[in-house]
Every structure is written in C-alpha cells, then in structure tokens.
Amino acid sequence: MNQPQVHATALIGNGVTLGTGVRVNAFVNLYGCQVGDDCMIGTFVEIQSDVKLGARCRIQSHSFICSGVTLEEEVFVGHGVMFINDRHPSVQGALRRNWTLSPVLVGAGASIGSGAVIMGGVTIGKGAVIGAGAVVCKDVPDGATVAGVPARTLARS
Amino acid sequence: MNQPQVHATALIGNGVTLGTGVRVNAFVNLYGCQVGDDCMIGTFVEIQSDVKLGARCRIQSHSFICSGVTLEEEVFVGHGVMFINDRHPSVQGALRRNWTLSPVLVGAGASIGSGAVIMGGVTIGKGAVIGAGAVVCKDVPDGATVAGVPARTLARS
Amino acid sequence: MNQPQVHATALIGNGVTLGTGVRVNAFVNLYGCQVGDDCMIGTFVEIQSDVKLGARCRIQSHSFICSGVTLEEEVFVGHGVMFINDRHPSVQGALRRNWTLSPVLVGAGASIGSGAVIMGGVTIGKGAVIGAGAVVCKDVPDGATVAGVPARTLARS
C-alpha cells in the first residue's frame, strides 16, 4: 500500500482521512475533510470540514476549499482558487450562526484555472473548463468552457 | 478576561496588540498592527504595520492587509482579498523610498467578497458589500453593493 | 559580502541559488530556482524549479511563480499574483506528463499589480504596467499599461 506523504510542516487536523498515495505539501491546513486516493495538495492550501475530494484531484498552491464543496475524481484546481459557501457573508451572520451554507459540486475531470472564484451554490459540470481569473456565479454545464467576471460561456461541448 | 488564542505556528512580531478574545490561526504573519477585541484572523494572513482592526472583524484565509488600512468594527474580509496602498508600485519607488502611501478606510459592517482587490486611496462605506473578485478603484458609498473589474455599483441602500 | 537573510520558517529546497543581499521572508517555499542579487521574496510565496529572477526583483506576499517564468531585473510582482505555464491544465495531462510548458518572460522594470494572473506563453515588455486584478492573456508591449479581464491596453509609452 502506498502511504500518504505529508510534509513535516503540514497540519492534519481532526477528522481528516487521507487515501492511499496522497501527497500533502508544505504549509497546508486540513481539517475534517476526506481526501481521495492519489490526490495532490499543494503548498499554502486550506481545506475545511466536510469537503470531499475524489481520487486523483490536484489542488494547486494557495487555494482554499470551504465546507460544503465536493469535488468528483480528477478535478484540477489551479493556483489561488477561492471557493465560497455563503452568498451573503457578514460578521453578524457569522456571530449569530444564522447564515446558510450553499454547497458546490464540481464534476469529474473539470479544470479550474488559477485565480478563479467559485460562488456558493453552483454546480460545475463534468469536464468543464473554468478560465483563469473567472468569477463563477451560476452553473456550468458538462463540458462547457467559461471565463470572465462574471463568467460567461465561451464554448459548449 | 478572554485571552487571545494564537496558533503555535503564527508569527506575532514587534508592536502587535491583540485585544481580548482574539483568535489567530495557523501560518499567520502579523507585525506592528492593532487587532481589536474578538477579531478572527484566518490561516495564511499577513497584516502589516500601522493597520488597525476594529472589534469583531473577521479576516478570512489567504488575505493581505497592508500598512495604511483601517477597518472599523465588524468588517468581514473574505478569502484571498488583497489590499493595496501604492497606486504606482515599482522597484525603483521601493528602493528610493519615494512612493506615496494611499490609505484605505473600510466602514463598520462592510463585507468584502473573496478574491477582491482594494486599490489604495479608496474609502468603503459602512455596510457596503464588495462582490467576490471585484477590483475596487474608487470610493463605495455607505450601504452600496459593487462588483466587477473595475467594480461598478449594482445597488444603493 | 552581503549574506542572504532567510527567515527560519522558509524552505529552501534543492538547487536554489540566492544572490547576495537577498531577503526571504516567513513561510516561503523555493526549489530549483535562481534568485538574483538583492531580491526580496515576501511571505507565503512559492517559486518553482527553473525560474530565474534578475537582480532587485520584489516578489510580494502570496504570489506564485511557476517553472518557465523568467523575470529580468527590477520587476515588481504585487501580492497574490499567479503565473501560469500550462494553457490547458488537467489532471490527465499532469498524470500522463504530456502537457506543454508555455514560458513567460517579464522585462526589466515591469510592475505587476496585486491579484493579477499571467497566462502561460506571454511576454510582458520592459517597463510595462499590469493593473491590479488583470488577467493577461497576450503579449504586452514595452512600456504599455494594461488592465481588466481579459487585460486590454490602457496606454502605450
């Protein structure tokens, strides 16, 4: 069996499960998440509770994956990608714990470009391509390519 | 009294003052800044000298707050937000120390979406909402909602 | 001779060369790269193999510089800047190692604003200015100023 390789500086908190062959780089903060077999987690990545990563996902450096996000297998997350799970964030909502979690699903084989922001509540289809720097505010069909702020469809499969 | 909780990996440099009930997460770099009571500072955050955070601000992971920024109380800063204090940055300006600091003020209760960039010299009004991925180049009135690159007003209170 | 100053938490991997007077801040991950004299490397920066930085470059916090990037001297890289070297990233491409590296060249004295994303394959000219939050998808002439998503020319020198 291929043991996970975890850098000495990485923090693996309570409730994390790492599949076989997982690689976790330096300065990483994981807690309460499930990481599928053979995933790669880059430097300066944080993944919160209740996130599920399918097998062979690659999470590049500087990205943030919040509670409520599910990635199917072989999803590519570029560098500096920010996921969101609260469409109306505020301090008062956080303090009163009365905000609503808007989950995100990313289909198998999708690719999210560096610097993209993924709004809470959206579903990104299988094999979809999100351009670098895009701000994705609505669902992306399977195989579609989107880009821009807000993201618009460039091509459909 | 509620002592600050500071993660063992966080760096708290000279001149930092932490109010009661402050929480500082892992891999944080603070120096010369004032952090008000009950603020939360997320993972991978850097806050520079002379920054002032009012009470109960929440600074989410991967954000950068530069010298010259003042946040009033209960400001929500999303993930991967970058503040700027130099409208014409260059190596020569930095080496010669002849650049001009352009301060930023964010009013109480404002919310800044993930991935936003806040240009030097702007004032964001109380209760304003900055959309995810926005690039804010001019002042935002109290209670207004802005989004886009450059940010434009979507709604006024 | 002015020895490099490297923070105790910074990781300096195999094959890194640091010029005289280099300063490396906290929580940095460097491997296989050449850093010219008197460069400043900010907090939470990762620089990959085969990157070359000319003298006196300043790489601000939270930025990522990938293999295939060359910066000439005195390039200013703002905070949270992401460089890209693969125009069609995917997990399958990474696993099969059949992707094509698209190099990036940044000319002397250029300034890249915070939150910008630089696509693989582009050349940024000497003294060019990239606006904050820009997504640069094509070449930028010497001395030009560009901004937006995708980046468009605002001024030429």
User: How would you characterize the largest beta sheet of chain A?
Assistant: 9 strands, mixed
Order of helices and strands of chain A: EEEEEEEEEEEEEEHEEEEEEEE
Runs of chain A in which pLDDT lies below 50 for 5 or more consecutive residues are none
What do the pLDDT scores of chain A average to?
97
Q: What is the strand tally of chain A?
A: 22
Oligomer: homotrimer
Distance between the termini of chain A: 38 Å
Percent in helix of chain A: under 10%
Q: Calculate Rg of chain A over CA atoms.
A: 15 Å
CATH class placement of chain A: Mainly Beta
- Tally of helical segments of chain A: 1
* Number of separate domains of chain A: 1
Largest interface: A-B, 25 and 29 residues
Looking at this structure, what is the CATH superfamily of chain A? Hexapeptide repeat proteins
Strand content of chain A: 25-35%
State the strand order across the main sheet of chain A: 1-4-7-10-13-16-19-21-22
CATH topological fold name of chain A: UDP N-Acetylglucosamine Acyltransferase, domain 1
CATH-defined architecture of chain A? 3 Solenoid
Could you name the key traits of this structure?
9-stranded mixed beta sheet; homotrimer; 6-stranded parallel beta sheet; 157 residues; mainly beta; 1 helix; 31% strand; UDP N-Acetylglucosamine Acyltransferase, domain 1
Task: Write structural notes for this entry.
The mean pLDDT of chain A is 97. Helix content of chain A is 4%, strand content 31%. In chain A, a hairpin with a 4-residue loop joins strand 21 and strand 22. Chain A has a single domain (5-87, 99-155), classed as UDP N-Acetylglucosamine Acyltransferase, domain 1. In chain A, the strands form four sheets. The first copy, chain A, has a nine-stranded mixed sheet, with no helix packed on it. The first copy, chain A, has a six-stranded parallel sheet with strand order 3-6-9-12-15-18, with no helix packed on it. In chain A, strands 2-5-8-11 form a four-stranded parallel sheet, with no helix packed on it. The longest helix of chain A is centred in the middle third of the chain and has 6 residues, at 91-96. Chain A has 157 residues and is mainly beta. Chain A has one helix and 22 strands. Chain A has one helix spanning 91-96, and strands at 5-6, 11-12, 17-18, 23-24, 29-30, 34-35, 40-41, 46-47, 52-53, 58-59, 64-65, 69-71, 76-77, 82-83, 104-106, 111-112, 117-118, 123-124, 129-130, 135-136, 145-147, 152-155. Chains B and C meet through helix 1 of B and loops of C.
